[in-house]
Task: inverse folding
């Protein structure tokens, strides 16, 4: 059964969702969403596992959106979260921004990982054009609020198949985006914009890793997943058909099956 709980870390109240019991897997959500992105996976936890999905700093219901800092600061909340739950090591991963944070965390605290999940994400840093586009989005959200970000991002967040055949997804994703504050979204865009290249981090990632994406991802091309898989010593690559950038939400059964197979085979 999926549950919601709150825990105090570093003087802040953090909301998380969890389900199952056993070996821990921490799931970090994409920008600009919340832990609720992972509900489909939390409803399909394999036997012997506990899945834990925290809201990232500045995101989720009740968050003021303040104190985001850098992706390294956001990553530092994960060991604090594990400590508060008395968990030493866990499989840790995320989708898109959640993946960027996973790589930042591996740089800082590799000893906390038993395995890594990198979904619809990339290890490369932003190009100058990409950084300029981030600045425009900061101006947009400061001017017009989270709905304007939803309007701009939704066409690309979901893949072509979802836009045509899964009409329930667009309002759901819009609701998650609009549940966040303009200040939190703006600060997270700046943190994402300033992230470093993580290829060298992945080259020395000694844990089993699942690199997973969708063949209709219009935000991060499949070639980025191939590049990560190409440098990681112990990775496996899965490209899900008919799935876009939010593959875990768009094809939840296929995503969860690939994840379960990976966890069973490697841990
Ligand atoms: C995300 O889904 O987390 C963002 O689209 C990541 C990004 O814009 O780089």
Result:
């Amino acid at each position: 059964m999926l549950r919601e709980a709150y825990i105090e870390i570093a003087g802040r109240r953090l909301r998380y969702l969890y389900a199952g019991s056993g070996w821990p897997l921490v799931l970090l959500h994409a920008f600009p969403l919340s832990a609720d992105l992972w509900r489909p996976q939390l409803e399909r936890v394999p036997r012997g596992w506990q899945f834990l999905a925290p809201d990232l700093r500045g995101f989720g219901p009740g968050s003021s959106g303040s104190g985001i800092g850098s992706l390294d600061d956001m990553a530092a909340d994960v060991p604090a979260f594990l400590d508060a739950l008395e968990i030493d090591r866990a499989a840790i991963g995320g989708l898109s921004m959640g993946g960027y944070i996973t790589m930042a965390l591996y740089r800082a605290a590799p000893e906390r990982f038993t395995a890594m999940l990198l979904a619809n994400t990339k290890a490369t840093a932003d190009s100058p054009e990409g950084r300029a586009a981030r600045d425009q989005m900061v101006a947009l959200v400061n001017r017009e609020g989270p709905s304007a970000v939803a309007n701009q991002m939704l066409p690309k967040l979901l893949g072509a198949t979802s836009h045509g055949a899964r009409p329930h997804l667009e309002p759901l994703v819009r609701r998650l985006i609009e549940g966040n504050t303009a200040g939190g979204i703006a600060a997270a865009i700046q943190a994402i914009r300033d992230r470093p290249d993580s290829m060298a981090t992945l080259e020395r990632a000694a844990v089993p890793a699942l690199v997973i994406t969708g063949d209709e991802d219009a935000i991060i091309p499949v070639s980025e997943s191939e590049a990560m898989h190409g440098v990681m010593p112990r990775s496996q690559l899965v490209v899900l058909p008919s799935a876009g950038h939010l593959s875990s939400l768009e094809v939840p059964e296929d995503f969860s099956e690939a994840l379960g197979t990976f966890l069973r085979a490697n841990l």
